[in-house]
Design a protein that fits this description.
Blueprint: E1 2-3, E2 6-8, E3 11-13, E4 18-22, E5 29-34, H1 38-57, H2 60-76, H3 78-89, H4 93-111, E6 120-122, E7 129-137, E8 140-144, H5 152-163, E9 167-171, H6 178-185, H7 187-190, E10 197-199, H8 204-213, E11 217-223, H9 226-238, E12 242-246, E13 251-255, H10 261-273, E14 283-289, H11 293-305, H12 325-340, E15 344-347, E16 366-369, H13 376-379, E17 386-392, H14 395-403, E18 407-408, E19 410-414, H15 418-427, E20 432-435, E21 450-451, E22 454-455, H16 460-465, E23 468-476
Parallel strand pairs: 1-5, 8-9, 8-11, 9-10, 11-12, 13-14, 13-19, 14-17, 16-17, 19-20
Antiparallel strand pairs: 2-3, 4-5, 6-7, 7-23, 12-22, 15-16, 18-21
Length: 479
């Protein structure tokens, strides 16, 4: 067991009391983390504001070099950090490596913007004047991140915030704070000035709430649940602070009769059970054209049966435990609700027990059929290793079903019909659309959603924009 401290103003500090970090596979306490006090929270934002001014005056090249050194230092510690990710999330070690590599790539990508944050020179209306649009950092940023990708999402917030000249105060989820603290451990060696990047720990309802309400923050960037995102938005409104919210999804996975069924099956298995189904862009509801539904279901069940549930540190493990008892019980309640509503469980449907599974938060890969569109399991986010299958008859019907959701983050379509593809691109209400392939963003794309999936977004040039504001300069000179 390790005792971690928080990273404040370039120093490591304890808080008031502590919280345990539990290994979801064994229920053992692997670390203790401090809980930030109100005084520490206020001080962190004051320090961030002072540090940000100096950081913003540095050149983009200087800031980019810091990000590059940070990426190099993290790479040197890859084996240690991926083990930390696996143990705090319960994620298979192979997936933890993938998360690390994907996350660290954001440092290198956004470092490339050291010479690419451009302004504009416009034609003035009056003689002897210049009209400029000058990009400037928003100031201090609050970052609130979830537990499912604690390393990758941390870097997803850190890199664009810092390259644009902002300071970031980050709060990792209290269940999985160790990855962010491991990133902070290398900040000073990378050349990050004290106060430019800080990590506060503690529960969201207390520490997170206080951070969001601090008037120093000019932007809150958040990834997490819908209720928390809405609460953050209301609190931010009191200070007229900007928000960027990514709040989950209920991705439809549409399989048409003209597609490669085997490819659709493989992708459906991967996109549902990766990270134990704990991904906001996961295949949350699978719609099958009636002509291929039986074939797909048979092959899908066979693929699910091949998934190896077990010790996350083993190289052959495909599915680990749920991240916490609370999340395990949510999935149980979801499946039980579907049963009571008339759905049929084709595979799984319960906790895994016996031997090593008597400790930890294990749930079997689960497939459910005989569902209706109005069931909770088709409307509410499952966020676990459970997938409902539903048949449809026509393309117009399935488009309506796919849009019948309060979410609008990701979607999937398997078809070889270009007219259907183009219609779906036009009509489907989502921010991220995967056609004949599985999930996985590109760092230079854009990750954002519609409706209750959020507003704003991350990645690429569009994800960089909300870390900047634009000053309009009217310059009169003696002609």
């Amino acid at each position: 067991m390790s005792n971690y401290q928080m990273y404040l103003n370039g120093k490591w500090e304890d808080g008031e009391g502590s919280c345990p970090v539990i290994n979801p596979a064994t229920e053992e306490t692997i670390a203790e983390i401090p809980v930030a006090t109100d005084t520490q929270i206020t001080e962190a934002f004051q320090v961030a504001r002072r540090a940000q001014r100096s950081w913003a005056r540095m050149t983009g090249v200087e800031r980019g070099n810091v990000l590059r050194r940070w990426a190099d230092l993290l790479e040197e510690n890859r084996d240690h950090i991926t083990r930390v990710i696996s143990q705090e999330v319960g994620k298979p070690i192979t997936e933890a490596r993938g998360e690390f590599d994907f996350g660290n790539s954001w440092f290198r990508y956004y470092a490339e913007f050291d010479r690419r944050i451009d302004g504009e020179i416009l034609t003035p209306d009056k003689p002897n004047e210049q009209l400029w649009i000058v990009p400037s950092p928003v100031g201090v940023v609050t970052g609130i991140i979830p537990w499912n990708f604690p390393f990758a999402v941390a870097v997803r917030k850190i890199a664009p915030a810092l390259i644009t000249g902002n300071a970031l105060v980050l709060k990792p989820h209290e269940d999985t704070p160790l990855s962010a603290l491991e990133i902070a451990r290398l900040a000073e060696a990378a050349g990050v000035p004290p106060g430019v990047f800080q990590v506060l720990c503690g529960p969201g309802e207390t520490v997170g709430e206080a951070m969001v309400k601090d008037p120093t923050a000019r932007l809150i960037t958040f990834t997490g649940s819908v209720p928390t995102g809405k609460r953050i938005s209301r609190n931010a409104a009191e200070n007229v602070a900007l928000v960027s919210l990514e709040m989950g999804g209920k991705a439809p996975f549409i399989v048409m009769e003209d597609c490669d069924v085997d490819a659709a099956v493989d992708t459906a298995v991967f996109s549902r059970f990766l990270n134990c189904g704990q991904i906001c862009i996961a295949n949350e509801r699978t719609y099958l054209h009636q002509s291929i539904a039986e074939e797909f279901t048979e092959k899908f069940l066979a693929g699910v049966q091949q998934l190896n549930l077990g010790d996350p540190l083993r190289e052959d493990t495909r599915i680990g435990p749920k991240v916490s008892r609370e999340e395990l019980e949510k999935v149980e309640a979801c499946v039980e609700g579907a049963r009571q509503a008339g759905a049929e469980v084709l595979a799984g449907g319960s906790r895994r027990t016996g031997g090593q599974f008597d400790r930890g938060f294990w749930y079997e890969p689960t497939v459910i059929s005989s569902v209706r569109q109005d069931m909770d399991i088709m409307q509410k986010e499952i966020f676990g290793p459970v997938v409902p299958l539903m048949e449809f008859n026509t393309f117009d019907e399935v488009l309506g079903l796919a849009n019948d959701s309060s979410y609008g983050l990701a979607a999937y379509l398997f078809t070889n019909d270009m007219n259907r593809i183009m219609r779906t691109i036009r009509d489907l209400e989502c921010g991220e659309f995967y056609i004949n392939r599985g999930p996985g963003e590109s760092i230079h794309g854009f990750h954002g959603g519609l409706k209750e999936s959020g507003l704003g977004g991350d990645d690429g040039t569009h994800g960089l924009e909300h870390y900047l504001h634009r000053k309009c300069v009217y310059l009169k000179f003696d002609g």
